[in-house]
Amino acid sequence: MPEFKIQHITKYSYDTPVRDSANKIILYPIVDIYQEVLKQDIMITGNPQIDTYVDYYGNEVGSFTYSEPHNLLVINSQVSVSTHPRPLPTDEIASAIQWNELDSIKYIVPYIDFLKQEYFEGLSELAPIVENERKTDDTPYQAALKFTEYVYKNFEYIKGVTTVETTLDEIWKIKSGVCQDFAHLLMVMLRLVGIPARYVSGYICPRRDGMRGEGATHAWAEAYLPGYGWLGLDPTNNCVANEMHVRLAVGRNFSDCSPVKGVYKGSARHKLEVSVSVGYQEDDNLPDEEELFEVASFPVAETKSAPRNSYERYMEIIQQQQQQQQ
Fold first, then answer.
1. Mind telling me which Gene3D superfamilies this protein's record contains (predicted)?
2. Of 106, 212, 228, 321, which one has the fewest beta carbons inside 10 Å?
3. What is the pTM of this model?
4. Does 316 have pLDDT greater than 90?
């Protein structure tokens, strides 16, 4: 039963004062029998009141408004989380029965939302690969594991190889990307065979053998399996997402899981920095804000024309989508 402490700081700086910043935050880890929030503090510039509610996908969402003119907006979430290992599927139900059950729920809410495919020209190339990977007598669980392994083995994890305009088709052609790219590809494969799939944003925590993306924000997918429920699958690391993965939010894709998004009135020029520190509860205290940004900051270009890689896109769109209102 590991316990982790996570600090997630979003810092927005503006070249001239802005005002009426209205924001929505999804920074509250999911709470269920496998994940418990021991303590959480969220500190925001100006100390605005945060109102919370639960969205359509079951995520806890906070909203706040900072009306005073300001050059800086900082959202600092510090949370302690305890996780519990989730038993793996026993997979004892006959394969045909499981596939029939999936077919019977494909028009039922909420599964219908997680079966809808994003536009992807490469489907014509991917579909026969999916069928080749899945054997006739495979259960949904076995098929999902094979698809996870396929993405892991056939796509190279490279930061900076994709840009903010990169589509699934481009990722398919260059056979590389980062965690959110791999999660989206895995979801396409799962949905092709009728397995509901949803996107998960969160954190992957340190472990001795090392994992891609550990100690930072991360993304993976969940597949719905008959007789079991939602199973987390991490194609970036070719593993089942379990007690080392802290779930923050779920949705159809990354846009449903943005930790921070909002609007403001004022200057169009801004700079975004997002920093994350993840460690075990028994470790030393979290670094202060200056130390955290010194060792792990992700500045986003101030002009729209500047190129941004997919990791920066993740930090900008997933961590904070803040649009301008004149």
1. 3.10.620.30
2. 106
3. 0.85
4. no
